Amino acid sequence: MLKSLGMLVTQVTQQIRSADQQSHSRADRAQQIAQQTERRRRRKTVALLAVMFIVLVLVFSFIFHELMAREGRSYSWPTSIYWTMT
Predict the structure, then answer these.
(1) What domains, with CATH codes, occur in the chain?
(2) Are 84 and 57 in contact (CB under 8 A)?
(3) How far is CA 52 from CA 57, 60, 74, in A?
């Protein structure tokens, strides 16, 4: 009787431990997925900001280039970008 009770306790303990380890691995996997999603979101944000920066520099360089052309001055495109950046 005692031997079978000891076996029962051992089996239940092993089942609880394996279930606990599975829940930890599920939690770890969920955390990894959340971190990957956060990294992906941050990369998209940085890429979007970089594209917006480039577009704004090009737009303002174009405006500078056109204003200088209307004043009768001739500047190269790299100079327009330089003046936009400074």
Answers:
(1) 2-85 (1.10.287)
(2) yes
(3) 9, 12, 27
